[in-house]
Amino acid sequence: MAIPGGSPNPYLQPQQPHPYAGGYSSYPPPPPPAPPAGGGRGGGVPGWLWGLGGALLASAAWGGVLLATGGLGGGDRPDLAGYGTTDDLCAAADVSAFEDSYSIDSEPRAGTFSGDRLEKAVCDITLTPTGDENYNSVYLNYEVSWHRGTDPAPEFADQARSSEVFFGNELELTVEEVSGLGDEAYLVTFAEESGELTWAVLSVREGWFEAHLSWNAFLDTPEYAELVEARSVTAALRTSAEKTLVALKE
Known about the structure:
Elements: H1 54-58, H2 60-69, H3 89-92, E1 102-104, E2 109-114, E3 118-129, E4 137-147, H4 153-161, H5 164-167, E5 172-177, E6 184-191, E7 197-206, E8 209-218, H6 230-249
Antiparallel strand pairs: 1-3, 2-3, 3-4, 4-8, 5-6, 6-7, 7-8
């Protein structure tokens, strides 16, 4: 079973291209390609522009106020909701909700980006069904963003709903709002005509902080039919997201 689409990276790995390398400006990106036939696992599957001369001197005090408040009157000051940055998102990523059915196949891979207006961290984790010897895999991708220049709230819902542009009618796509997570959260799921869940993305926004957790599977069914059942997958995603967010606030 394979998922259509390329890998533009919603949002690192040599064997399995990271599906979020392009970030979530295009949300969510197409899932990664299926592993080559007959291949082994082989590891993990990712401000102000000051005026020059006299203008700089004349506006130094006023500019300091703007930098401190984030804008005129402080209305655009970043609200990161208490989430601290991290150099290793994999240390915070919680996969305990998947431990009953999977084992970690290879060393998780983490990456970070730090800019003047945006910081990001990603973590890729490859899971294998317990006892499997036939190269079946599930990929978990965590991505968190600390926005310092632009409030993501106005576009957050539309980013989730725009998922259909990547897949059209190729897969059965659903977008639903999720309550009880951050200020707002959305779950996007993709299933084949058979009903087999192949891709799921849970996205959470709290203030100017965003988190995205995706799951996609390359599993031989019907042997692992229970592992692609939508209710169990989405429940595990929520549990993983909740615990990961708590860890990022500690």
